[in-house]
Amino acid sequence: MLTFEKQSLSDTTKLAQNLAAFLSIGDLLLLYGDLGSGKTAFTRSLVQALGADKNVIVNSPTFTILQQYKGHGLVFPIYHFDAYRLENIGAADQGFEDYINGDGLTIIEWPQFMADILPGEYLKIEFVYDKDKRDITISASGDHYRKLLEKL
């Protein structure tokens, strides 16, 4: 487990850029944190670090649940979920399983609402926000993600 304390937005961007260097197709990132804690800002920085051109707009897909980023300079597709609206219904039978560990990188905000379909291996990133600074804790589940965390 790694903890980065009192991260500014600039620090969060740098962390996303560093992580991007080690990500590959099939990776799964689970982002935990309250509203406004930095999950989407982190995702935006990560997508940009993975090569997205300036035409790619990264916003939290709160209402659509899934935003797909393909092409536009990206080496592989990125599937960005915001599962907040699944709180009362879960993710089973929604067809989302096809995106997880598939042909791209999967990033899930509010993954606790998709727990019914998540595999046992992933990189967990927790955001705690307080007064313009955030603490970010990254932990790994599974050998692949433990090795990734060691590189970071």
Automatic annotation (TrEMBL):
Keywords: ATP-binding, Cytoplasm, Kinase, Magnesium, Metal-binding, Nucleotide-binding, Transferase, tRNA processing. The keyword Translocase does not apply. Gene3D superfamilies: P-loop containing nucleotide triphosphate hydrolases. One of its GO terms (molecular function) is metal ion binding. InterPro entries: P-loop_NTPase, T6A_TsaE. Its main location: cytoplasm. GO terms for biological process: tRNA threonylcarbamoyladenosine modification. One of its GO terms (cellular component) is cytoplasm. This is tRNA threonylcarbamoyladenosine biosynthesis protein TsaE. It comes from Oenococcus oeni (strain ATCC BAA-331 / PSU-1).
